Amino acid sequence: MENNRVGMAKKEEVASALKGGSLTRISHKKSTAMPNLPMDEMIIETAKNNDINELRPLLLELISSIEDASEFNVETALENCKQIIQHPNSYIYIARMSKKVVGFINFTIRKTILHKAPSGLIDEIVVAKTHHKQGIGKKLIAAAIEKCTKLGCCEVEVSTEITNKGAISFYKNCGFRGGSVLLEYDID
Ligand SMILES: CC(C)(COP(=O)(O)OP(=O)(O)OC[C@H]1O[C@@H](n2cnc3c(N)ncnc32)[C@H](O)[C@@H]1OP(=O)(O)O)[C@@H](O)C(=O)NCCC(=O)NCCS
Predict the structure, then answer these.
(1) Is the CB of 173 under 6 A from ligand 1?
(2) I need a labelling partner for 76 at 20 to 30 A (CA). Which of 27, 39, 61, 139 fits?
(3) Ligand 1 within 6 A of 126 CB?
(4) How much is the pLDDT for 179?
(5) Torsion angles phi and psi, residue 58, rounded to 5
(6) Which segments of the chain does DSSP mark as H helices, in order?
(7) In what helix (H) or strand (E) does residue 126 lie, and over which residues does it extend?
(8) What is the pTM of this model?
(9) What's the CA gap between 39 and 29, in Å, rounded?
(10) Is 108 buried (19+), middle (13-18) or exposed (0-12) by CB count in 10 A?
(11) Residue 140 CA, ligand 1 centroid: distance in Å
(12) Domains defined along the chain, listed by start
């Protein structure tokens, strides 16, 4: 699977992505067609062990978004999520609306040889199809960038399949720039 590393979010783009208030508890308007109804509250929080089973439908959506998903299955993905939340440098943030998990993002902080400060790397993000284009993905990205900024990172990178044009447009819309290419060597 060839991936396209969309690039890193620059500081001013981070600032613009972060615009819109607190990132841990966000008011999110579900429908602009009903302006007089109370705002549905969206909460972004760190995933805990109890949350992992709720990720199953989203993991299935994530897997179905991959062009050749034959090497992936939801049971392994759930097990990986359990391991990731135990890892000190890895994070899964979930977005909840009306108590239901409607999206998540997974990212890791790591040191590279060239950069003075650590780099953030977003590996996966998914929002429930029923909740697309409501700004949830952008808020998850902003929450990840905020955490990376607090941890002293100098950049945040993201990669996606070169064929996932929707995700590439989404990431560019969130301020990611650059044309690096991430190639993969399959070991098994
Ligand atoms: C990519 C994804 C996470 C976007 O989530 P989302 O909540 O729908 O995105 P948002 O509503 O926050 O969109 C933010 C901006 O990106 C744009 N955008 C979102 N999806 C887009 C798409 N498929 N094509 C073009 N632009 C898109 C939105 O129009 C919005 O623009 P605006 O700020 O000018 O209004 C979601 O489509 C998804 O879960 N896809 C399947 C999984 C996937 O491909 N993940 C990425 C690879 S790991």
Answers:
(1) yes
(2) 139
(3) yes
(4) 77
(5) -70, -35
(6) 11-18, 56-64, 74-86, 136-150, 165-173
(7) strand 119-127
(8) 0.87
(9) 5
(10) middle
(11) 11
(12) 3-182 (3.40.630.30)
| HSE of 32, CA atoms in CB hemisphere, 13 A | 3
Q: Which residue CA neighbors atom 7 of ligand 1 most closely?
A: 137
pLDDT along the chain (188 residues), means of 10: 56 46 29 42 96 98 95 97 98 96 98 97 98 98 98 96 95 93 89
The tokens describing 186, both together, are: 């399959």
18 lines ligand 1 (CB under 6 A): no
Query: DSSP assignment, residue 135?
Result: S
Q: What are phi and psi of 123, to 5 degrees?
A: -95, -45
Q: How far apart are the first and last CA of the chain?
A: 13
